[in-house]
Amino acid sequence: MTLIMVLYAIVGTALGLFMGALPGITVTMTAVLVVSLTYGWPMMEALAFIVGAFCGGVTGGCISAIALNIPGTSAAVATSFDGYPLLKRGEADNALSIGLATSFMGGLIGLLIMLAAGPAIGSFALKFGSQEYFLITMWGLTLVAVLSRGNTVKGLAAAFFGLFVGMIGMDPVMGMLRFTFGTGILKGGINFVAAMIGLFGMKEVIKQLSKTESFNITGTVYNIKGLLPKPHLLKKVWHTVLWGGPLGTLIGLLPGTGGDVGCIVAYGVAKQVTRNPSRPFGEGAYEGVAAPEVANNAAIGGALTTMMTLGIPGDSVTAVILGSFYLHGLLPGPTFMLTEKHYFYVIVWCVLVGTIMAYVFGILGSNLILKAINLPKWLLVPFITILCIVGSYAISNNLYDVMIMMVFGIIGYLFEKGGFPTGPIVLAVILGPMIERNLRQALVLTGGFFPFLSSLVTRPISIVLLILMVVSFVLQSKVMSAANNRSKAA
Q1: Is the Cα torsion angle 387, 299, 140, 118 positive or negative in sign?
Q2: Would you give the distance in Å from CA 275 to the centre of its chain?
């Protein structure tokens, strides 16, 4: 970990915190835009910048959640349930002080569990064969249940579209061209990074073009001294931190979850286990701010661990980061801890720097961020547009990638207008080729379809993965259904 990498991580954290606090610019979109900036960078500096932006983006979401009752990121949805009532009570400083402090603590807890769990999971994953690789990537597709936002059918439709996009180009086994429609542009397939930039970045540009209003937050000003840690407030929420951190990390470790699910689950658990809250939940309970913030930041360590050791994303953000790893020559998966273990510890250092600096920048820069939020949205649109165009062109210095980005921006906009989530598309585009390759390798090794099915129920690890896939999908569906009901009730 060099000084230049620390500086990149610090700058990435500052950018991530700023973008994560802007309503409408999610952590996923932040990751896409940050990845688009790192083309041509040295690998280590790029990773430091991206991981720092991830940490800053998750923390930044609580700033607008408390000040505007509009979460900057979906991982801060539950923070607004009690954060905004605290602001209306005149305790905006207390709300953000707790939010930033517990975010910092959650990040450290997730980091410690990441250090302990990463090598163990990596050693276990070395026993995987083609069947296990196939099942583990299929397990990643259970994230569709979370990303579907209550409409699993539309989420599955989006995922199938993503699988189709992932099959465009050359067959990985036979070398035949598929779905190119006779054009040379598609022979190399669809670059998934260009597709991601379009689906998240350009889609948001198209959506915001007709919106020029600003947010009325002129009455909200934070006292920097009031954002510093307050022992009497932390004393009221320390028990929430003790169970919320491990819970958030565990949720992050599960494929198909992450901070989005972690914050909702933690808030629900806090309501159930907190016998004497500082106030009733929903009316400004300090525990209602601490629980989601400690969980969504702790989930960072869990999601990155799953991504690196198993090669599957813990959530939509790590799906984008997984793509950036491939872009910079790293191959996350079961062999990662064997062949590239040193990169694991580099990323651990980057998470530590990002967690610390997100806390520092959150205290020092909250008022500046609020002023930026108060600007008309159309001032941000040209900046995002330039990033999308330059980022997609820089992939291979090819205008075709810019065209693909624009096409997917329109597709993403139309999908969102129709109520179809775009997250499953990205997930399927990344995981689809991995699923196909491992499935076909397993079919060749076992000698046919029925021997392949037999191997899935006779290999111990395969049986465990099959059970986990079913349990994970069912639990995620129930969690998201409960989360949707809570959101409607709130």
Answers
A1: positive
A2: 32
pTM: 0.72
Are the CB atoms for 350 and 188 separated by under 8 Å? no
Q: How far apart are CA 341 and CA 413, in angstroms?
A: 40
Phi, psi dihedrals of residue 177, rounded to the nearest 5°: -85, 140
The token pair that represents 210 in the structure block: 């007709």
Neighbours of 399 (CB within 10 A): 10
Residues 89, 414: Cα–Cα separation, whole Å: 41
Q: What is the extent of the structural domain holding 80?
A: 3-489
Rounded to whole angstroms, what are the CA distances from 198 to 204, 208, 220?
9, 14, 34
Domain count, the chain: 1
Query: Mapped to the 3 state alphabet, what secondary structure does 10-53 carry?
Result: HHHHHHHHHHHHCCCCCHHHHHHHHHHHCCCCCHHHHHHHHHHH
Q: Taking the C-alpha atoms of 104, 107, 112 and 115 in order, what is their torsion angle to the nearest 10 degrees?
A: -140
Nearest-angstrom CA–CA distance, 317 and 321:
6
- Measured between alpha carbons, how far is 95 from 80 in angstroms, rounded to an integer? 10
Q: Where are the beta strands (DSSP E) in 386-476?
A: none
CA distance 85 to 99: 14
CB 46 within 8 A of CB 329: no
The closest of 15, 7, 18, 17 to 45, measured between CA atoms, is 7
d(CA 22, CA 413): 19
Region for residue 90 given its phi and psi (left: phi exceeds 0; alpha: psi -120 to 50; beta: otherwise): left
29 class by beta-carbon count within 10 Å (0-12 exposed, 13-18 middle, 19+ buried): buried
Pull the structure tokens for residue 68. Answer: 């505007």
Q: Is 178 helix (H, G, I), strand (E, B) or coil?
A: strand
User: Do 263 and 58 form a contact (C-beta atoms < 8 A)?
Assistant: no
pLDDT string in tens for the chain (490-residue length): 789 999 999 999 999 998 888 766 677 778 888 887 887 788 889 889 999 999 998 898 888 788 777 666 667 778 888 888 888 888 888 888 999 999 999 999 999 998 888 888 767 766 777 887 788 777 767 656 555 656 778 888 888 898 898 888 888 777 788 888 877 778 878 877 788 778 877 887 887 776 655 555 555 666 777 788 888 888 888 999 999 899 888 878 876 566 766 787 788 788 878 888 888 888 888 998 999 899 989 988 888 888 888 887 766 788 788 888 887 788 887 778 777 888 889 999 999 999 999 999 999 888 887 777 666 666 767 877 887 787 777 667 788 888 988 999 899 889 888 888 777 787 788 778 878 888 888 888 888 888 888 888 888 888 888 887 777 667 666 655 655 565 555 5
59 close to 100: Cβ distance less than 8 angstroms? yes
**Residue 64 CA to its chain's centroid (Å):** 18
